[in-house]
Backbone:
């Protein structure tokens, strides 16, 4: 059987794409940058970031690229590692349903390194970000659902390829160079979901960004590599997913719409895994509408479709960090009327009353329930059923949680998220917002990089 050369097709489409006139895609890209910065600045004083700095500083080397919220610079590769890690460490950064993962916290750190070491306009930067999201979303569809279910972390395995082509586009790589950069990124693809709830999960994002940048350097140094890494029996899709599915979906209708617009990025209102956001919204509604006390609850069922909770690997978390991947923890916090703030998702022991309540929360799977047309992600839902000791049953279903496409945050909401992440420097927040909203010229990029190096939280 003759297979198509998907690597060649994808590279050709990327290098021949002009996004300069696509206003909608650029608007979505600006919102994505604001959200990424908000997620990163909120994490800038996270203690695990210092651990990573200790590793980076021991390596030495040139320091060219600003690291967000640190008022320090790092090398081309190490800045990718740090900025990717910082953007994802709170799990407060955007997701995309086609990716089943987090695109911006891999793509934007890579582009920051690219822009800090290569003259580029704001227009080109935005275009490269749009391309990165497009490729990562298409990879997510093409690799198939089994990739994630099997245990791979899509943010890591798909992110390095998407970020590498984004930087390649930023640097105006030729088609052959783009094919090679795909190969170098694909051969580094790794990241296991078993690491969720630990500091290794955000490390996946940082490593994916760093791997993407290493792929760029390998091409620039003319290191030999394959130009067909996505293809054939030993290629990326055969190893990690489904080559026949990829041949149908990967390049189909390129440019007809852009995935950063449709279905669009999901910007988070809570600092934990998006798979628990439906349950959070449902529980908040029930707590607001009814008089519910933890002492009067017999049990709580949280209903998912099969594998709808695959990312929520913790059912009995002992720390807030583990609680980011526990629907039991999120629901229990709300039952006791604790906030879903960053404070309750740190690497410290969870509150005793919450810990004692966890066994009352149970997961239930029901594939007989018909998914809603507006469900995000597609075919997903969560129903929270609270059974009281007196037999009363309270029930709430959520198909499209707050922040997801179809129930999206406004630009005002995202700008407010950035302000909240910079409580001691509202001027910097406003300067960044103003600059991003007019991002166009080379001077805008230089100003942007300078601002990112102007604030230190820890």
Residues:
């Amino acid at each position: 059987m003759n297979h198509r050369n998907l690597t060649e097709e994808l590279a050709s489409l990327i290098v021949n794409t002009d996004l300069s006139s696509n206003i909608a895609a650029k608007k979505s890209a600006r919102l994505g940058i604001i959200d990424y910065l908000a997620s990163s600045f909120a994490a800038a004083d996270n203690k695990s970031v210092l651990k990573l700095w200790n590793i980076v500083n021991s390596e030495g080397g040139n320091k060219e690229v600003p690291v967000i919220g640190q008022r320090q610079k790092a090398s081309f590769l190490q800045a990718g590692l740090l900025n990717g890690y910082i953007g994802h460490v709170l799990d407060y950064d955007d997701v995309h349903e086609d990716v089943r993962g987090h695109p911006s916290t891999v793509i934007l750190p890579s582009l920051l390194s690219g822009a800090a070491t290569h003259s580029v306009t704001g227009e080109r930067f935005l275009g490269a970000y749009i391309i990165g999201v497009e490729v990562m979303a298409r990879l997510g569809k093409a690799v198939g659902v089994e990739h994630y279910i099997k245990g791979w972390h899509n943010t890591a395995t798909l992110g390095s390829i998407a970020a590498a082509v984004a930087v390649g586009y930023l640097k105006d790589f030729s088609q052959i160079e783009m094919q090679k950069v795909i190969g170098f990124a694909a051969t580094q693809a790794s990241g296991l979901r078993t690491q969720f709830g630990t500091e290794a999960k955000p490390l996946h994002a940082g490593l994916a960004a760093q791997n993407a940048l290493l792929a760029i350097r390998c091409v620039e140094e003319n290191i030999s590599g394959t130009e067909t890494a996505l293809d054939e029996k030993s290629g990326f899709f055969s190893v990690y997913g489904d080559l026949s599915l990829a041949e149908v979906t990967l390049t189909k209708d390129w440019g007809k719409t852009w995935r950063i617009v449709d279905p669009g990025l999901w910007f988070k209102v809570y600092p934990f895994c998006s798979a628990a956001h439906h349950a959070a919204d449902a529980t908040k509604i029930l707590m607001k509408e009814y008089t519910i006390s933890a002492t009067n609850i017999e049990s709580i069922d949280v209903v998912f479709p099969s594998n709808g909770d695959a990312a929520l690997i913790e059912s009995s978390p002992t720390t807030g960090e583990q609680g980011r991947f526990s629907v039991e923890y999120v629901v229990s916090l709300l039952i006791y009327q604790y906030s879903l703030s960053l404070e309750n998702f740190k690497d410290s022991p969870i509150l005793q009353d919450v810990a004692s309540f966890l066994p009352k929360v149970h997961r239930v799977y029901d594939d007989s329930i018909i998914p809603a047309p507006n469900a995000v992600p597609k075919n997903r839902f969560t129903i929270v059923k609270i059974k009281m000791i007196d037999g009363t049953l309270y029930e709430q279903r959520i198909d499209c949680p707050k922040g997801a496409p179809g129930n999206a945050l406004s630009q005002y909401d995202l700008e407010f998220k950035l302000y909240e992440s910079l409580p001691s420097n509202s001027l910097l927040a406003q300067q960044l917002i103003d600059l991003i909203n007019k991002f166009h010229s080379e001077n805008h990029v230089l100003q942007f990089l300078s601002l990112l190096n102007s604030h230190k939280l820890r």
Notes: Strands lie at 65-67, 72-74, 297-304, 361-365, 382-388, 393-398. Residues 122-143 form the longest helix (22 residues). The radius of gyration is 22 Å.
